[in-house]
Amino acid sequence: MAMRLAVVVLCFFSVTASVTRTNVARVPGFDGALPSRLQTGYVTVDEENGAELFYYFIESEGDPGSDPVLLWITGGDRCSVLSALFFEIGPLKLVVEPYNGNLPRLRYHPYTWTKVANLLFVDSPVGAGFSFSRNPRGYDVGDVSASLQLVKFLSEGYLVGNPSTGESIDYDSKVPYAHGVGIISDQLYELLEEGSTAYILGRKCIYVSPRPNYDNIDRRILKEEREVIHHPPPQPSIKCKDYSNYLSYFWANNIATREALGIRKGTVNEWVRCHDKDLPYTQDISSNIKYHRNVTLKAFNRPVVATSAWFDRTILTCGDHDAVVPFLGTQAWVRSLNYPIADDWRAWHLDGQSAGFTIAYGNNLTFATVKDFGVS
C-alpha cells in the first residue's frame, strides 16, 4: 500500500470543538526526557455519533510561540498517523532490531521537523489509528465529510506532499516514470499499461500492515479493552524498510504505551497501521485538482493584511523515487493550471548537496521534487 501524505501549514492551532488533552511526560521505549513537549488528545468532530479524532501535538524545539504549526495527515485506507511520526518527520524513530517480545525501543530523530516547527499529527478519518466512534454510523464517512471534520481543528494553510488527485493523470504517469528511471525496457514500455513498486530502491518485501478480518463489529462498538493481539502482522526480514512498520504494531498495542498516550479504554480494541476496506468510506471527490486551483487562486488574490499575510504560499512536493503517484503526473497537472513561471526549473540544495528540483510560479505556487524519497 502506498502512503499518500497531505500537510496543511498553519500559523496557529485553532480548536473549536470539544477537546480532551493528555500531557505526556514520558514515552515508553524512549530513554530520558523528550526533546520537546508532547500532548495527545481527542477532538469531537461528530457529536451525534460520538466520533472523535485522536491527535499528537509536539512542540517545536526552537521557539514554539513563533514557529509555525504544521498539521500532518497520513493518506491510505485509514492509516495511522504514527506512520508519519515514526517513519517520516517526527522526533522519534523505532530502533530497528529483532523483535524479542519486549516493548520496541525508540530513538531520537536528528532530522525531525520539530527543529523548526510545531507538529500536529491527526488520526483521520474516524477509524484511523486511535480515532473512534461510539456509534458505528460515525465510521461511515467520505472525502467531503472527513475534510469538513478537519475544519474543526484549524484555520487555513497549505502544503501537500506526494498528492493523489483521483484522476487518471496520477496513474498514467507510472509506466513513463518506470521507463524513464530504467526499471523497464523499451519493449515493455510499449506493452505495459501500468505496474511498478512503491519505492523503487526498496527490497521486495511482504506487506506488513495487517488487514483485519473481524468476526463481529467489536472494533466499532466500545467494549472492554483487551490485552490480546488478535491480528499480528507477518514478520518481514529485518533488512526490509517495512520492519519498522512491524515493530510499530507491538509498540502501539502495548498497555504501557496506551496508558502513557491517554488512550481511552474500550475505544480501539486493536491498533492497526492501516485498514483495508473493513470500514466504510466513500470516495465522493473524483478529482481534487479544482480544489487546488481554487485554493491557490484565493491565496494569490487575498489582500495582504496583518491577520493573513502568512497565507501567501502553496507548496507541492514529490519524492522522485515514488512510483505510486510519480512526480511526472503531479508535475503535469500543476502545469495544467497555466500559472506564469516565476523561477524556472532548477536544482535546489541542502548543505551543498543536490536535494531535488523545483519550479516556482507567479502566484506563489512552488513545485519541488525530493531526492531519493518514496513512500512509507
Automatic annotation (TrEMBL):
Pfam families referenced in this protein's UniProt entry, alphabetically: Peptidase_S10
Q: Does the keyword Signal apply?
A: yes
Please give the InterPro entries that the UniProt record associates with this protein.
Peptidase_S10
GO BP annotations listed: proteolysis; secondary metabolic process
* Keyword set includes Protein biosynthesis: no
What keywords sit in the KW lines? Signal
Q: Which GO terms describe its molecular function?
A: acyltransferase activity, transferring groups other than amino-acyl groups; serine-type carboxypeptidase activity
Please indicate which superkingdom the organism of origin belongs to: Eukaryota
As given in the record, the signal peptide range reads: 1-17
Q: Which PANTHER family match?
A: CARBOXYPEPTIDASE (PTHR11802:SF46), SERINE PROTEASE FAMILY S10 SERINE CARBOXYPEPTIDASE (PTHR11802)
Designated name of the protein: Serine carboxypeptidase
Organism for this UniProt entry: Zizania palustris (Northern wild rice)
